[in-house]
Amino acid sequence: GYPAGRGKPKASSPSARQCSDRPPVRCLLHDIDPSKLTSLLCGHPAGRGTALLLQAVRQQVTIAASSDYSKTALEWIISNDVLLLKSKKQSIFVRVLQADVVDSREQMARLINALASFTKGREYLLGKAFLDCYLLRGRRLPASTQEQLIATLQKASVRQSCQRELLQCGMLEWVVNFLENRTTLYATEYACSLAINLSLNVSPHTVATFSELKNSRKYVESWINKVLDRILGPFFKISIN
Predict the structure, then answer these.
(1) Following CA atoms 206, 212, 218, 219 in sequence, which dihedral angle do they give, to the nearest 10 degrees?
(2) Measuring CA to CA, how many Å separate 93 from each of 140, 143, 225?
């Protein structure tokens, strides 16, 4: 018989045995020399090679076999400070955006948007004042790059410290003006969410900003209605059709 209190041992399923026998997935980024990668990105921020490298790094985070792989890739990027956000030097993020080359800027925007999807990624990005994102500098960016940066800011704006910084650099005013223009659905969703996050921040600056936008309650109400219309409009169209 079997020991008291114990029944017949259960046979493990084939799938369970396969999972236990499967070797741990090795992150490909561990085969890269991080200092060489950083040097390449710093030395050629406008190069086609930089765009391809940034794309490859992002894909290690987003196109992965498992969530554990994604987290390992993210930790490698952060621990090696690939974007130089912990360094006193100019960050690679700024270098690439200043390079004025569409491909590398696009891939940088996509990379930081991917990093911002993770709590640790947001902490890494907020470790250095990158938040102006050149959106407020009068710099003309392609729509696809701009919407990636807006999505990054929206994800970061869940933290109150980030909200305060964005409010101080005029992001609420900027996003209000942005929503006045025709935008893609992707950009509209993230811009509306960013505006709502900033509006919910209970600080004197938020109140003062609304007063400065226009000293009129009617204006604020119309702005809120526009935000709701942008968010709910597509759902009403679907229900009508």
Answers:
(1) -90
(2) 17, 18, 35
* Helix, strand, coil percentages in the chain from 3-state DSSP, rounded to 5: 65, 0, 35
The Cα–Cα gap between 69 and 100 comes to 33
Q: Are 141 and 148 in contact (CB under 8 A)?
A: no
> pTM of the prediction?
0.77
**Which tokens sit at 3?**
């020991």
Question: For residue 41, what are its two tokens?
Answer: 């990105």
Average pLDDT over residues 179-206: 81
Strands (E), the chain: none
The greatest distance separating any two alpha carbons of the chain, rounded to the nearest whole angstrom, comes to 85
Residue 8 phi/psi, 5-degree rounding, is -65, 130
- Could you tell me what percent of the chain has a pLDDT over 90? 33
**Residue of higher predicted confidence among 223 and 152:** 152
How many residues appear in the chain? Answer: 241
Closest CA to 39 of 86, 95, 1: 95
